[in-house]
Design goal:
Structural class: mainly alpha
Number of domains: 2
Strand content: under 5%
Helix content: over 70%
Shape: globular
Radius of gyration: 24 Å
Largest sheet: none
Order of helices and strands: HHHHHHHHHHHHHHHHHHH
Length: 494
């Protein structure tokens, strides 16, 4: 079941109705059952994986809290971390590591046979694994108490809006909200439905439409003849992909946050206009915020952060981005993408003192034109790295980069666009959709209510009509724009 499907448009109102009408002390059972059903709609036989990870982290946290000796606490933390990561590594990386070792042995002239398993990557495993790890680590650090009620903790791990692709929530934010008696208010309902509507629009009207043109270039890199495959079309496809992946992933996040908000639960912000970042560091403060903060709190800072000298700091930055690349997928293309961002940030840090002196001498520090220039340079760097991220293989990646930087001779731009199927109507539709998304991102869904605004209760009649209208609009979008059936979100594969 995906958000952009008719089954979800039936599932969510039913869950919301049950959540609102049953007594507060039983709400966790309804949400937990709904969350497990949501997870099992993908592959019912893989439910044991999330149950195993949940049980191990739950028992380990209680053991850590009860243990008096530091050594016992560390041992339990190690066992919980090893158990959770072992499941993740086995399903996500076993075949990749096996194939890599086989290729390496063959490169040295050894006769090594292929050894891979028929494994299916469980949806959301990277996200809920990190969520359980943050809980156990925070209990070990005594930042949060161990949750004794297994049902509430299981719901924290499996809460269906953010189960499959985040945001990666922290226990101190989500668990207390799940336990609260969240009233049905106009503010939460209207804001939540607006967020959901924006998310549906980003996914169905923008991301899915742009994917058609992106796939023509990236799914056949090097196999197409002229005029469809050249520097211009690779650049255009990469530009479109930058919009596609943002609208796809932030669209999922908007729907997840909106679903939760309608129930009175507020998830953390996961995107904040990332392409307006003035450097790579700023980009990562705005892109996939929950993952960036997770890596900062649980990897970068424990490694020493910036406290042990410049050389150590740069090694830590490189390590974090390398791990980020590995986390995103079992392929060398993702690793190269992560390394590229690590190099970007290290070079930016090394050259910052010199660039700061130059800005002060030229007196352009806060000039709008200079800020625009910095944003443009940052976007170009991000765009170059997206090529590696989207490429299907190392050979495709090499072909795409070669074509992007050298394939500009004798291009017939009109013929290229025509062969790609990107005519005037498609360009106008894409531009309009992106413009609507840009405006809505800032003026509708992300508009912050004033602290003085009263929480107005919503009458059952008004709530019913409001939800019915929004759901009819969502169904219409799916009928008009998603004729090929509900498509999966990009980050489901991670």
């Amino acid at each position: 079941m995906v958000f952009n499907s008719f089954s979800f448009l039936i599932f969510f109102p039913l869950v919301l109705l049950i959540y609102r009408i049953i007594p507060k002390k039983y709400r966790w059972t309804a949400l937990l059952a709904a969350s497990y059903y949501f997870y099992m709609s993908w592959r019912a036989d893989l439910i044991y994986l999330i149950l195993f990870t949940t049980a191990v982290s739950y028992l380990s946290a209680i053991g850590i809290e009860r243990a008096e000796k530091k050594k016992v606490k560390k041992l339990l933390l190690f066992l919980a971390t090893a158990a959770s990561l072992s499941v993740l590594f086995f399903f996500k990386y076993f075949n990749f590591l096996s194939s890599s070792v086989t290729s390496l042995l063959r490169a040295f002239g050894l006769n090594a046979g292929d050894f891979t398993l028929d494994l299916i990557l469980p949806v959301g495993i990277s996200f809920y694994t990190f969520q359980t790890l943050s809980y156990v680590i925070d209990v070990y650090r005594e930042k949060v108490p161990a949750e004794r009620h297994f049902g509430w903790y299981a719901l924290y791990v499996s809460f269906f809006p953010q189960l499959v692709a985040g945001p990666i929530e922290r226990p101190e934010n989500l668990i207390p909200q799940l336990k609260k008696d969240n009233p049905f208010t106009y503010s939460d309902t209207s804001t939540g439905l607006k967020m959901m509507a924006l998310g549906f629009f980003k996914k169905v009207a923008v991301a899915d439409q742009l994917s058609v043109f992106v796939e023509k270039i990236y799914n056949g890199a090097g196999t197409q003849g002229e005029p469809i495959f050249n520097g211009f079309t690779v650049l255009l496809a990469t530009l479109l992909f930058s919009v596609q992946i943002y609208c796809d992933f932030s669209g999922y996040t908007d729907i997840a946050i909106g679903c939760s908000r309608v129930m009175g639960i507020r998830l953390m912000q996961n995107f904040n206009a990332p392409y307006s970042g003035i450097n790579i560091r700023d980009f990562w403060r705005r892109w996939h915020i929950s993952l960036t903060s997770w890596f900062t709190d649980y990897i970068y800072i424990p490694l020493g952060g910036s406290r042990k000298g410049r050389a150590k700091q740069y090694a830590n930055i490189f390590s974090v981005f390398l791990i980020s690349g590995i986390w995103h997928g079992a392929a060398f293309t993702y690793i190269i993408w992560g390394i590229a961002h690590g190099i970007y940030q290290i070079v930016g840090n090394v050259t910052e003192p010199l660039r700061k002196k130059l800005r002060e001498r030229l007196k352009i520090e806060n000039k709008k034109l200079y800020i625009l220039f910095r944003r443009a340079v940052t976007f170009v760097l991000v765009l170059i790295a997206w090529v590696a991220f989207r490429a299907n293989s190392l050979s495709d990646m090499a072909t795409l980069y070669m074509t992007l930087f050298t394939g500009w001779a004798g291009i017939d731009f009109s013929a290229s666009l025509s062969a790609l199927g990107f005519g005037a109507a498609e360009a106008l539709s894409a531009s309009l959709s992106v413009f609507i998304t840009f405006m809505a991102d800032r003026s509708i869904a992300l508009k912050k209510a004033s602290p003085d605004d009263p929480e107005v209760s919503l009458s059952p009649e008004k709530a019913f009509m409001y939800i019915l209208f929004c759901w009819c609009a969502a169904a219409a979008w799916l009928i008009l724009l998603n004729r090929g059936g509900a498509s999966s979100f990009i980050y489901f594969q991670f």
